[in-house]
Design brief:
- The chain is mainly β.
- The protein has no helices and ten strands.
- The strands form three sheets. Strands 4-10-9-6-7 form a five-stranded mixed sheet, with no helix packed on it.
- Strand 2 and strand 3 form a beta hairpin.
- The N and C termini lie far apart (42 Å).
């Protein structure tokens, strides 16, 4: 499976076509006050690798690979769990099975209270395996 993550100012998914519309995409430095943003995930795999329900987790870690707990009122790590289902009916015709399956999703992120002067990483796990990550830095206040 191939996968990659993109950071954007905003993103919108069309679930019917598995397309994602992106605005202000490709940044890796933000802040020091972190604005609203979006993260988009793109997965590509041969049809034979994917069947049934596919579980995924998107989580935020710090430079030491420790889960980030950004909210003072909660000790929960910042992560999102989800799933999608792949069925043979999705292939539409015989030609569909000859090219890899592309799946994409995006998530709007609120302004996060992250520490200026630090590096963070979003990590995408599919079925328990890390398949993609993207690093970003929060500018120092000076």
């Amino acid at each position: 499976m191939e996968a990659f993550l993109l950071l954007s100012d905003a993103a919108n998914a069309d679930t019917g076509s598995s397309k994602v519309d992106l605005l202000g995409t490709g940044w890796s430095i933000t802040g020091p006050n972190v604005p609203p943003a979006a993260i988009s995930a793109f997965l590509r795999a041969p049809w034979g690798e994917l069947s049934g329900e596919i579980q995924f987790r998107l989580r935020l870690v710090d430079a030491a690979d420790q889960d980030v707990r950004p909210f003072a009122d909660s000790d929960q790590p910042l992560s999102f769990d989800g799933a999608f289902t792949v069925s043979e009916a999705t292939q539409l015709d015989g030609m569909g099975g000859k090219i890899p399956l592309n799946a994409a999703f995006c998530m709007a992120l609120p302004p996060l209270p992250l520490q200026p002067g630090h590096i963070y990483r979003w990590v995408l796990e599919v079925a328990g395996d890390t398949v993609a990550s993207v690093d970003f830095a929060v500018r120092s206040k000076n």
